[in-house]
TrEMBL record:
Active-site residues, record numbering mapped to chain: 170
Molecular functions per Gene Ontology: peptidoglycan lytic transglycosylase activity
Pfam family, one: SLT_2
Range of residues in the leader sequence: 1-18
Official protein name in the record: Lytic murein transglycosylase B
Entry's Gene Ontology BP terms: peptidoglycan catabolic process
PANTHER family: MEMBRANE-BOUND LYTIC MUREIN TRANSGLYCOSYLASE B
Organism: Methylomonas koyamae
Region named Disordered: 24-44
Gene3D superfamilies in the record: 1.10.530.10, Bacterial muramidase
Amino acid sequence: MFKFAAAAALAAALFGCASEPPRNQPRASAAVKPNPPSQSAHIRPDLRPFACVGGYRAGAVSGDYAGYPALTQFIEQMVQKHGFDREYLNGLFSQAKRKQWTLDYLAKSDQGLKGKPSKGGWTRYRSQFLDARHIDGGVAFWRTHQAALQRASQQYGVPAEYILGIMAVETTFGGFVGNHRVIDALTTLGFDYQRRGEFFRSELESFLLMARSEGIDPGKPVGSFAGAMGLGQFMPSSFLQWAVDFNGDGRRDLWNPEDAIGSVANYFAQHGWRNGQPVVSRTRGSYSGIDSLEPGIDHEYPLGTLAQAGIEPAGHCGCDYPLRLVLLRHQSNDEYLLGHPNFYVITRYNHSTHYAMAVHELAQAIKSGYQRLAGSPANLGEN
Ligand SMILES: [Ca+2]
């Protein structure tokens, strides 16, 4: 939905950004073959494929980020480590904006991190996602992108409905992919958000590498206030590690539905998705020793330990591996589920029990809706 890649490639051909070739030649992406240095000036942009897209150029950083020693150091690192042009980065960061709204918002939410989940917490979280907009939207998206979802499911061993569950929670299938410029988001969080500045500076480094390898003007992409991009809201480091070109056009484009489908499936596969295994199981028992166990994603228990605490799977489990205890606080009661390894895989996308449960429930609801429309599960083409 965000077609800047082709325009950026054109821009690369129109703007030269440095009068001198770089001392450290950046590595070209697999899709771009650099010309030898002896070629004429006419084709010079190919010497440094897309390294200067946007035509930014300045002797020093001006604007919101003028006089930030940490940014000067970061730019120097990008020059020395990755062969970026210093004046290009000075120009790029001269037009980066400090997003005070983001800093205020995070200061508030950091305060709210403390404390255990409150009564009804799951009920409230669930109601944001388990609705017709997300479920019907998933069914429609499945029908539109049936071939790509089937191919991804077969290639990566991840059911289509879980790819859709992620896209439902993240962006409602591209309905809202964020409107913050990624360069503003990551510069603000990298240099003005002390608690996680190091993390976001690393993401900024990955973002600049991504922009260069894909031929994108780094001033153009928009995403979440934290710099997450596209239908699956990949952070730049996730892009570099797990994004795939799934429509075969030679580019990895997180805003393209097919590339996003393949990338989410690859993310799950690389994080250990076990095809055919369940995500959660219901429980029964006396729960007499429940207080001796810690719910959440950081602790896992063998079935024997759970049995000693008065908890067992409600049906046949067939699980010979440790399980996590998933606490869901409904409005009127607390519910305990058993989280299988696939539950943990979903939390690698977002480290939250509620997040993984919403993805799981949406996956099931979207699958039911799709099967009703398709008429028969045999038509789904799942593996
Ligand atoms: Ca592609």
